[in-house]
Amino acid sequence: MNQPRTENMKFTELPTLAGNLEFDAAIDRDFGSATENHTDGFSRRRWLQIMGASLALGGTVGCRYEEEKIAPFAFRPQNRVPGVPERFATMIDHGGIAQPLMSTNYDGRPIKLDGNPSHPCSMGASSTHTQARILEFYDPDRLRVSLKSTGATNKFGNLFEDTSFEGIVAAFKPLLATKDLSKVAVLAYPSSSPTLMRMQESFTARGGSWISYGAVSDDNTRAGAKLAFSKPLRAQYRFEKAKVIVTLDADPLFLDSGSIPNSIAFAKGRDADAKQMSRLYAVESQYSTTGGAADHRISVPSHKIAGFAAALSAAVAAAPADVTVDKSLPYRERLLAAMVQDLVANKGAGIVIAGESQPPAVHALVHALNEKLGNNGVTIEFVDLSDAGRTSLEAVQDFANQVGGGGFETLIVLGGNPVFDAPRELKLVELIGKMPNSVHLTLYKNETSLVCKWVSNVAHPLETWKDGLAHDGSVLIGQPLINPLFDGKSEIETLAAMLGEPSLEGQQIIRETLQLTAEDSVWRQAVHDGFVAGTATEPSKVSAAAAPQVAADDSWSKPWDGSSMEIVFNPSQSLYDGQFANNSWMLELPNFFTKIAWDNVASVSPRTADKLALKQGMLVTLNVAGAKQEIPVNIQPGQADGSIGIDIGWGRTAAGRVGGDVANGVAPVGHDVNGLRKIANWSFVAGLGPDAVVASKKIYKLAIAQEPWTIDETGKNEIQARMFRDYNKKESDRSGLLREGSFESYREFLEHHPLKTASAQPATPGVSLTQAVAKSGALPILNQVVFVPDDKAAGQDEHADEPGHEHSDGHGHKEARWPEAFHMHHELFDITPGSREDYKQSNPAHVNMWGKSIDLNKCIGCNACVVACQSENNVPVVGKDDSWRGREMYWIRIDRYFGDNLYTDDAKDDDKIIIHQPVACHHCENAPCETVCPVAATVHSSEGLNEMVYNRCIGTRYCGNNCPYKVRRFNYFNYTDAVTLLKYPGGDKLPAGDRNLQHLMMNPEVTIRSRGVMEKCTYCVQRIQNVKIKAKNEGRRPIGANEITTACQDVCPTQAIKFGDLNNPASDVAAAHANPRAYSMLEDLNNIPRTKYLARVRNPHPQLIDRDDRNSVRGWKKTNA
Amino acid sequence: MATVNNYLDNTYDDPDHRAPLVLGGMTYKTVTETVVAPWESDKPPRIWYLLFATAVCLLMMLGACIMHLLLKGVGVWGNSNPTYWAFPIVNFVFWVGIGHAGTLISAILFLFRQNWRTSINRAAEAMTIFAVICAGMFPGIHIGRVWAFYWLFPVPTEHLAMWPNFRSPLLWDVFAVGTYATVSLLFWYMGMVPDIATFRDRSKTKTKKLIYGLLSLGWTGSARNWHRYEIAYTILAALATPLVLSVHTIVSFDFAVSQVPGWHTTIFPPYFVAGAIFSGFAMVVTLLVPARAIYGLQNLITLRHLENMNKIIMATGMMVGTAYAIEFFIAWYSGVPWEGFAFYNRAFGNYWWAYWIMVSCNVIIPQLFWFKWCRTTPWFMVIVCIFVNIGMWFERFVITVTSLCRDFLPSSWAYFYPTSIDIMMLVGSFGLFMTLFLLFCRFLPIIAMSEVKGVIPLEEH
Fold first, then answer.
1. The complex's ipTM?
2. Per-residue pLDDT tens for A230-242?
3. Is A301 within 8 Å of A645 (Cβ atoms)?
4. How far apart are CA B423 and CA A678, in angstroms?
5. Do B165 and A934 touch (CB under 8 A)?
6. Which of A92, A122, A103 lies closest to A193, judged by CA?
7. Do A932 and B257 touch (CB under 8 A)?
8. Any residues with CB less than 8 A from the CB of A854 and at least 6 apart, and which?
């Protein structure tokens, strides 16, 4: 093609250039040519394209996740279907009361604990502590092996070398073999075990001393009962029968040993729909769960509650049968008068309870008061205690005195942690340290273990046979669910071996105690059920002695003098007495009221904070009789002025790698306030001056799940404005996160518009829901579950001629045929038929439409659902730093709002409104999260679930932004790995076995989420699927109305949560959605959530209502104007 | 070398004369020599080394932060549960905004025959590309699973087995920013071809000749070349023009389409575009004032150019200010309580300080440009423009963070605290930007020589 360039080319005419190749090339260069395009063969470009693409795409095929080989059973063990969970009844002792449990085992390992549904003390419900036991069980920090002191010590305590169970038995058996055990003491953690009591008897019969000590005890309660009845008795409250309940610094719904049965009964007694509602008054120094659930609550410092009790007692004694309440009285006195009137008017249907913090005299006074009111034996029953002699605090003092006097040579510490939680002034560290022979039988190596010579590795209750007495006195039997992970023997077995008992095997010992050795079938039945039927203690017929003298004192009604201070020591809601200090589920669980996780604080009222110039989070030094402790301040409305509330159980120094292990460089979590607790002022210390609190300049970083009360004014006002619907605003703007009305008006409303019960709308009998849907064509809508006002109200309109009557409210609702007086209820208890169930109309193809309801009237905010969900759904723990940043992963959380009293302006600081609102994913029909996800990782199922596809999620977090409920949770880090799951510093250095230990706890039916994906409540989709599969296998039978339950629902003691198929009119949830109290949160956004809340119904005393609650929703700003 | 006359002021308007856009009596030759000089000199000025070293340090810090992020997870940022988007998205929107001026100058001003664009368009376009690179980086690494970022693209792969969600504004974003980056790059590069050819022709080493030869795509300067070039340039300008409006419109949809109070407002598209041009011009001024001083380009980038840009800054600043006011008006007028609170909280709530930094920097400070001295004094205008850029960063911060940290449920409200990584990555992104820009100044023609030659005032005969 190329011609040699002619050097002497001359100007030529165009025609001569034609055909000149060089010229053509020049033309091509300047103007392009068509010769580049090859039409035949494979073009170079095409070849490169294809090869390049293959290379690029071929490379991605090679990307795989790591494969892991598992070895299946060559021969399947009998009665085990792989992958099918099994459930076993068992029990765990908590604070001296046995909790009946049901454990879910997966491939032979327990993964979830629930209450035993067949036992009346649980009915399936359980507490946060019970839920957290499963994490404790798989805690790698548990003691692995028995230890023996080397004789050397360091500054943290004894140094140990490994030994064996046999080694310990060999060391102690000779010491205990002697007939006389007068030099031997057992310092036991409170337990209800009949077997331990049997051992105690034989032990003390041989002269030994058995001291039962727990930092959280019921000493005062027992002493009070002894004063009144001349023997300690346990009160069993029949809340369901009560019309009036008065609690004096008491918390029967949470910290009380019978909190679960109490909560069950309490919820039964407050069924607003059944027009039955007790009235609860709480008088307390700080918010308790009970106080949060109360209709009226005033805060009175703990040391003034005795005065209040005396005043109440005197007023009841002086009250005529038709006592009236003078509305002109100051609020506190008016409240007392109302209380007196209620109690007098409801003789035999009242309950007055004094809390453990109160001295025995107050308890005795209350028993006498109940006696006088005829409540004893009716709403309060007393049962005998099997361990009547237990006196924790006194006993431990005696013990210290005797050790000090050289009385004991040998000590067996049975569980517990007295070195940490017994009064420090007893100096147990030195006393026990000096004893020649001491052994600690314990699950963890804790502060007490460090001063003992021997430490015996105790198996976890889930690994051993055990027995106990439930709150009602019935005998529970707990079977082991798994072989001990770290060997270990139960306390019973260890003691038996040391004492040289004939039977050494746990099961045999318990059968002997319960005298069930012969009757095998009875034993088997009892083990299967988890309890021995018919063993509940019969109430004893007692009558209380006359009231002791308690100085009447009206200082409770006076405002705080501004200088006198008291400090109240509360058991921690999460750590209890400190035994859960290494349990990250408990550490991270926000306190119900302060919403603070990972710390304990000194709670003070806003006024106290003002007076002492304290700021939120400020570190202060508390000063009690020379003992000092630094602790951050939390400003807490509802706290009594001048009263400082602190949780005990925090600041452990030898808890483990999570909760603090100073010997290994892990700082304690929280602040140890046990040093401030003196024997003389065990529950609270009063009479302190303002110098008891010394403020510092330092602000401490508190991880708070909800912004504290002390946020800026703009925010504070807005929260108040958002809580309730504001009648002055337009309907569409009147969203209201919470709804509340008085029982009085609700009852009146129900009279005009009775509830239609679910059974009134029969389900299509015998038709399987899955079969009922035709393949094509018009799909049957099985039933419209709507609230229909009864015919009288809807049709005849008996109020038609009353003034203010409205037929149409002009916003699309059907005619609201109520007089103006009821219009408010239309706001409060929205009964618009149909409009709320749009999802059914727009999605007729749905066969099962899962929905949930949460009854705010029942919820007491006990947090059990939060931990149950965590356990069921493998929800990780994020640690303090990430909690502080607000990255907690809870799928369900409890929102807590404080507001001013809706019914009167007089209450001012007293009697605030507090409402708990559990919030989980609402599974919106118009889910805002779904549309914004760029990779379609969150999608809607045909059954209305808002599903999260983890492996498709890339973590843009847009869904989280667009979710108005803020229930989506993002894995900012890989929270489920060994390093972060339990927040182990140096967790990556744990041996592989320990790392994998935590994996055993995981629910295999729920995906473990990795870093970078979004997650949220699934409505326990795994449970839905299991039931669906089961129903399908059983001949495609219809799914039962309430067959599917969520984890949060199962655990709820008050049964506030209902879940099920909205399309099945027989289901509880359909009935709840049709309830006139049902409302959707943030309804004006038109997300059409599948979770509805049922408005709270409060039952205030009529004489404490200054304004009609129909106006009560008018908003905070106006009432303050 | 042409003589630089610092005293000749072309900022006054004489109805008789068009103000000259090139000063100092420059000719074709001197224009070329002036622009080529920094490239031809063996060593760039010392200040260049200083700036480059700083920029590279910051870039390395950014790289380290990204590595830390990839190893640990996006939790190294301060994002939290209500504030799911924070610094990364703020930075993204900020940089996309910066990236607006270039294309506006090159495309819209080109189509409107605003000849004064010629001296500044090249640098502005380069700045656009680099800003878009910075912008594109942030959403890429802010997602939880960075290694799966390509799932955002409609890639028909086996394991995804489905298309992305075309309803999501984030997907629109991917397309919008992707298109914008592509077209801007093409536009910039194509406009540079004749100048690169000049570099090629003047290259003294073989390597340079090869590289610039390849980059110049065989440009000969023939009539045919110029003909096609002009057509293509106009077409690209026409293509790029709607993109100027669309990119930030769609970026604003990320916010406006959601239902978060404070985001869900219809004013966002025009407001974002105005803000983007505002910040983009401010950045151009910030960069060009030192550049013209360092490279002696005062006769090409004259005070008149700078003044024109300052006028645009003032105009767009007032547009942004109007938008702020209208947002408040609508929040009140709509009667939506959520929105009402969102805006009240913005100005008087827990982030009041951020809001007032934004208002001061974006609305109040640019008012100085009413004074001629202010808009014609280079050092002073740089200060104002830096304030504008601070203000615009805070605007995005205010929109993103204050809306998220307090939305519907007070229970979920939480204050946002940035981490050191947040700050370091923001600063580091400037390192990336400056590194690229300094490399551009060193190796590519800063001024569109071929175009400037077209606006040299003809000698009067």
1. 0.92
2. 888 888 899 999 9
3. no
4. 49
5. yes
6. A92
7. yes
8. A917, A918, A1056, A1057, A1058, A1091, A1092, A1093, A1094
